[in-house]
Amino acid sequence: MSPFPRNQWYVAAYAHEVGRELFTRTVCGESVLLWRTEAGEVAAMADRCIHRRFPLSETPSRLVGDSVVCGYHGFTYGANGVCTAVPGQARVPRTARLNTYPVKEQDSFVWVWIGERDKADETLIPRSPWLDSPRYTTVCGMEPLAARYGLLVDNLLDLSHETYLHGGYIGTPEVAETPITTEVDEAAGVVHVSRHMDDAECPPFYAKSTGITGRITRWQDIEYHAPCLYLLHSRIAPVGAPGPNADGSDLHAFHVEVVYAITPETEHSTHDFWAVARDFALEDQEVSDFLRENNRTVVLQDVAALDKLEQVIASESAGAQELSINIDTGGLAARRLLKRLTEAGSEARGTNERQSLAVS
Amino acid sequence: MSMSRPAPSAMLTGDAVYRVVWVPGTDRLRGWCWCGTSYEAEGPVELWQWLLAHPDNHVDGSAGRGSNLPLRPASRLPHRPRDLRGDEPSHERQP
């Protein structure tokens, strides 16, 4: 069985990473070649020449107009993956074609569909509109994680770890002390975990970026859209400030949208995309620099912990004992959703493979 | 068992949303099936087992523990501040 949910959309890159240079990223064990056509459209295809498997992202492979030329023997492919030229002969074999991926550029991400092409439905891609909204300022990055993607899901669904792993940055005692409310929409594949702190210490991450010096009300509302997108709606306001209005306006609070795209690279490694979008100090470069450095530091604290945890888990026999408590309510729900999606993707793959064998 | 739902108000708006709250002042959890029936447990493992098994006796005969439901786009959170809608009010913050 595949270790990942197939027939799903995954973030392969930030839009700004993909241009007129050949770019590659491994998603769910598949090496994906990404580039932009001269018209600016993103093309996504297998990063292996069908001739002798040379990586098309590797020099001296190159982009010529809207064609990719393999740097080994010159096999040439269009944006649709079809081979248009081979060396030394006029006839291009009919089967000379790269597998292409359904791709969608949205909300500053490049999403690719991993699975059966005819099931790719762009309306299923979860949204994070803050990231390219002029009403927000965003800082972002991506850190490689030498751990299975499920460990990052566990980590992000239970923010009580902020108190211990990220003390002095985003963690304060109240995060671990405050009860959570969890909701799960099975059909949509969404887990929501809500933690509303009425009177909390303001951690440096928010004190220095907002200028608040006293205690705060701090809301953390997590939306995890399995398998790839994680949204943390963070609301910060001085204690005593009025709450949001019924129409959705909330003029007395600061809002930070923390977005993660959790993309499996291999069974034991993950692309940890992170972004922080804020609706205040939009033009303040110092605030941007501070949030970028501070959040990256927090992410790297997670990376160090999860890399170590991966080594431990990989060295243990399957089914080693764990203990779950109340703080794990959302994490357990996410695990179940991922298990269901993984099984569904594997069943579909198995059915297709059986059908292929039957007709071959 | 109880048929009423507790504060804070529901966040997800789908047709089949499970909901779990931390019972105030205790270490216990109370969960609501999407049909409105609830159950209290000492921990999340026991509670999820109950919730996921519960639809077996739903009166409308709807099968399922959710896993057979077709995947659909997620509903948007109604309470989310500053949702990027066209009718969003000005972002000017009051002192």
TrEMBL record, chain A:
SUPFAM superfamilies in the record: Bet v1-like, ISP domain
Cross-referenced PROSITE patterns: RIESKE (PS51296)
InterPro entries the record matches: Cholesterol_7-desaturase, Rieske_2Fe-2S, Rieske_2Fe-2S_sf, VanA_C_cat
Annotated keywords: 2Fe-2S, Iron, Iron-sulfur, Metal-binding, Oxidoreductase
Pfam families, alphabetized: Rieske (PF00355), VanA_C (PF19112)
Rieske domain ranges (all copies): 9-112
Name of the protein described by the UniProt record: Rieske 2Fe-2S domain-containing protein
